[in-house]
Amino acid sequence: MLLTTIGFSKKSLRDFTAALQHHKVERVIDTRLQNTSQLAGYAKKDDLAYVLELLHIDYLHELSLAPTEELLKAIKQKEIPWAEFEKTFVDLLAERKVEATMNEWLGDKVPCFMCSEEKPHHCHRKLVVEYLKDFDSRIEIVHL
């Protein structure tokens, strides 16, 4: 089972959609806490959902996969190191039991977990897919 991830920062709409199409993504799962900011450009919730609809790609905003407002603020303002963010966020995923609803939002589609970070290295979307892989060893992760 292939799980892909993508960040939209520093990507043109053309590059973003081309990456999704190249990897035959059928559902984008938005893991952002906030998805309506003007700063998001083409990745604003309604605009992104429309573009994806034109490409026959489902769009799902899944708040259970987003960090809390407090945790997000702490990492952005460098109040906590990455290792603390990582542990706290993974504990939050476990507390929310996201693995129990994994099949509901994955379905039989090729999913792509999306957030704003350009690269997955210090991004919660990477933590989400790694957490899910712990529950299904068939999962293969590809960061677009």
UniProtKB/TrEMBL annotation:
Pfam families per the UniProt record, alphabetical: DUF488
Stated name of the protein: DUF488 domain-containing protein
